[in-house]
Design brief:
By secondary structure, the chain is mainly α. It is built from 7 helices and 2 strands. About 55% of the residues lie in helices and about 5% in strands. Helix 2 crosses helix 5 and helix 3 packs across helix 4.
């Protein structure tokens, strides 16, 4: 970046957007989470199912099948694989004792959180350790403000769940 951080005061929205757009690829290059190519990865469909459960809570097989527009047998098979891997557990449905709900285990919740991380925590912690306390606080405040602004800007609204094309 051409400007010294002390010269960033008074930047307008266009200059700020330009600076962030130029800096972000460098931050991403240094801090993105590199995945072990030999590590057993979840299929995108399984990850979508785990993320949906994390967002909605326990579901019956029928509810999951309806949400993902898949047959009950296809969803049941996918859920069973996730149960065997220890990422989901079957729990009794208190609304109907004949049915069971599927819900995330602690390992399943940890996996959803881990898969959602874009940045490498250890690299980020090491870089933050090189910064002054004031810079760390300013970074956190600035990123929090950017996220809040994105949430209220119509241009940055995420599609509603029913508009997304998650598939299982």
């Amino acid at each position: 970046m051409d400007r010294h951080p002390s010269m960033l005061a008074g930047m307008d929205a266009i200059e700020t957007a330009d600076a962030v757009a130029r800096l972000y690829p460098e931050v991403f290059h240094f801090l993105y989470r590199r995945r072990n190519p030999r590590a057993k990865r979840l299929r995108p469909e399984s990850l979508a199912l785990l993320r949906h459960l994390a967002a909605t809570g326990p579901l019956t097989v029928m509810e999951a099948a309806r949400h993902f527009d898949r047959s009950q047998s296809a969803i049941s098979e996918r859920l069973e694989r996730l149960v065997k891997r220890g990422l989901l557990a079957r729990i009794p449905d208190e609304r109907d004792r004949r049915q069971h709900l599927v819900w995330l285990t602690d390992e399943g919740r940890d996996r959803v959180e881990e898969e959602g991380r874009v940045l490498d925590s250890a690299r980020l912690e090491a870089a933050a350790g090189e910064m002054s306390e004031d810079d760390r606080e300013a970074l956190t405040r600035g990123l929090s403000a950017l996220v809040a602004a994105c949430a209220t800007s119509a241009a940055n609204r995420r599609p509603k769940d029913e508009d997304r094309e998650d598939s299982v």
